[in-house]
Amino acid sequence: MSTTAPAESLLRVDALQVTYGPPSHLVHAVADATLMVEAGEAVGLAGESGCGKSTLARALLGLLPERVGRVSGGRIRIAGKDVTAFRDTQWAALRGHPVAMVFQDPLSFLNPVVRIGAQIAESVRQHDRDVALAPRCRELLELVKLPETVLRQYPHELSGGMRQRVMLAIALGCRPRLLVADEPTTALDVTTQAEIMALLGTLRGQLNMALLVVSHDLGLLRWHCDRLYIMYAGRTIEWGDTVSVIDRPAHPYTRGLIAASRLQRGSNGRFGALRGEVPALEQRLGCPFAPRCADAETVCRDCMPDVTAVTGAHHAKCWQLGSRDAAA
Amino acid sequence: MPLLELRHISKTFTRRGVSPLRAVDDVSLTVERGECLALVGESGSGKSTLARLALRLIDADEGEVLFDGAGLHKLSGNALRQARIKMQPVFQDASTAFNPRRTVRTILRQAAVADPSEAHLCALLERVELRPALPLLARYPNELSGGQRQRLSIARALATEPSLIIADEPLSGADVSVRAQILDLLADLQEQSGVSYLLITHDILLARAFSHRIAVMHQGSIVERGDTPTVLHAPTHAYTRRLLDAVQSVDGPVADAPSA
Amino acid sequence: MPIARAKALKFPALLSIGIIGSLLLLTLIVPQLLHGDPLALTDDILQPPSARHWFGTDDLGRDVLVEIIYGTRVSFLIGCAAALATAVAGTAIGSLGGFFGGVTDTVVTRLAEFFQVMPTFILAVVIVALAGPGLIRVVAVIALLSWPQTARVVRGEVLRLSRLDFVDALRCVGITEWRILTFEIIPNAVGPVFALGALIVGNAILLEASLSFLGLSDPSVISWGRLLSAGQRFLFSAWWLSLFPGLAILITVLAFNLLADGLRDMFDPRHAK
């Protein structure tokens, strides 16, 4: 697929590997991840806990835990620049602009004893030295639809949804071209969640900013992303247009995940389609999903499947893809 | 006679320096035998407080709790422990639901007072599809996966052969694929033993999937209640409509989707 | 995380265990090796350290090393007894406050505050001076003055643990409140008590030494503080009478403090690197 992509994608990750721990106990948190985000696009990265989606997101900003986690293979290109081997000082120039990140729990990223106004101003000053601070802060608050009074408040005085908006304002202060949102609404109530996601969508159009939303919630990604990547056991196993992936999932794991998120009884009267739980991260020869897959054959257990095109831009890694299509 | 009946329950929390919080405000509800009632609401709606009031883990300021004909609000000590033993909780966070120093064997034995034999404990684990059961008995809770822990907490609840399980967000801590498995398990148990559920959740999709009736809770009061399909398709209260509009399902708007 | 996972002790703590262990061994073995009454008076008075008397002799001709070894018994006995009494009292009182809350908790907290603001040493001096010296009294005074620290730590732990879901789950399967507190909560809450215990052993040894230095201890018992007190008359003529007991106190108290640090790290992940 590399040939079909334009040379200057905003973000491009090829065969990325991230390992944790000392050489004797290496854990492959990300084993083989492919990801592409074009300017202005909303992309979803879905998977269950331990699939490596948050590690991948952190690797995109050089935020892997120091000395513990490191990129051990593959490439990350941001706006055409290879950042795979960047040092901390080089990353610092990239963080915020062109790539910014918001996290699941804003409270742990906001300084509890500094007023919101000062925290937003700090982010603005980092990237726009010449801009007038006060009007820019007001502008940012307006973008995230918070009242100006928030500037004089402290993080603990705000609700969860408001804190997430503050985090957004801080991220936007850097004028990012790509905003990575790691489980941005998981800690929030359903109604607040819908508001924040709607806001993200509006901002994306308004600021021509690309979005990478990392979430376990396929329903949420279904409504807010143009394209979708599914991760399992450190690998991106299926990706394509959201509608195509959700309506015509090619990988058995994706099918199971969609059925499970539906929370409706299937034709057999059961809610669940997936057996077992996400396995511990380990190096294995074959397809990581083979032990849980109902259709697994010898080849699935012995060899890693290649990327196969399902339709156009919709790809999946599954040995059974060709045979099933033939049967259908 | 309903299995569980709450009559005009109210609870106000007071703390020094903070204005009193009326967490539950004159709530009445019933759970019939063999049914599942979903109590739907967002955080701070008072739904978890209501669960603890029903179990009488905290005392209500006003109102009555009747379980299987017994007025729990009037009981204390041994009589209370006896009266509520057939009503068991399943908690959201299975990582704090067990004493970390107890093995699975001890955890189950504490609950299975009537028959603490090894065979019975294994049978309990097998009922929640924790297999092979025997080697699991010697394990500690933190050696189990999240899904296994949630199954174990259901097994503990089953040990007293309850007629009502009060499940407070039983799926929230679990992975998507495990959620569906736990839901299947809860459905199977209801089919086998006729146990009733009071399902406390913020997730309307879960309520749609599993409950016979829904009560929507908002700021300490029940604002809407009725049969699940009715509430989902023809909500009367504005808050219920807001909740329904906020749901993001893989398929589409909840109200249009077929109900369980 | 509901409880801290135990980790291995670090080097300083292991070193301190070594020091404490060797001192204990010495107190047990050395008296067996000596013939006759090792503390009998001799004519070798105020001898400086030599091959025969490593730490020299005192004004009554007794070997200072032997005296220190005998003093170790008293110091360790008082330290451990005081730590044990403190741990038991502090755990009991603190867990009652943390578990039952309400009025009980208010009483416990206020009582602990009352004892914590007391000037420890002065109070100890007053009590011993009024009640007369004696090992048991010293232990009781130390316990009385140091339980609040333990009680506060245990109270906090019990309060945190009793809000966890497992306590409610146990209630619902019919286990009584007392059983829940004693067998389910307290075993999870006492980790920090061990660390505090080691600290209290050190403090108790120091307090006992201070009391006997002031002559407020049982005159029939040899202790490090009494050796120091006796030695101060000869501070300029026989320095070994003050130096070696002082060093013994310093090293032992330091060892118990290092052990306390190590135990604290072991039980509390927040302090560990």
Describe the 3D structure:
The complex is a heterotrimer of chains A (328), B (260) and C (273). Chain A is of the alpha/beta class and 328 residues long. Chain A is 32% helix and 23% strand. Chain A has an 8-stranded mixed β-sheet with strand order 6-7-8-3-9-10-12-11, sandwiched between helices. In chain A, strands 2-1-4-5 form a 4-stranded antiparallel β-sheet, covered by helices on one side. In chain A, helix 3 packs parallel to helix 5 and helix 4 packs across helix 5 (160-172). The longest helix of chain A is centred in the middle third of the chain and has 18 residues, at 190-207. In chain B, the strands form 2 sheets. Chain B has a 6-stranded mixed β-sheet, with helices on both faces. In chain B, strands 2-1-4-5 form a 4-stranded antiparallel β-sheet, covered by helices on one side. Chain B starts with a strand and ends in a 14-residue tail after the last helix. With 260 residues, chain B is α/β, with parallel strands linked by helices. Chain B has helices spanning 47-54, 77-83, 104-111, 118-127, 133-136, 146-158, 176-193, 204-210, 228-233, 238-246, and strands at 4-15, 18-31, 36-40, 62-67, 70-71, 87-90, 164-168, 196-201, 213-218, 221-227. Chain B is globular, with a radius of gyration of 19 Å. Chain C has a domain at 82-271: MetI-like (MetI-like fold, Orthogonal Bundle), CATH 1.10.3720. Chain C is an all-alpha fold. The model of chain C is unreliable at 1-6 (pLDDT under 50). Chain C has helices spanning 11-33, 64-100, 102-116, 120-131, 135-162, 165-172, 177-189, 191-213, 224-231, 240-267. Helices cover 71% and strands 0% of the residues of chain C. Chains in contact: A-B, B-C. Chain A binds chain B through residues 48-49, 189-191, 193-194, 197, 216-220, 222-224, 246, 256-265, 270-275, 277-278, and chain B through 42-43, 145-148, 175-181, 183-184, 187, 202-206, 208-210, 242-243, 245-251, 257-258, 260.
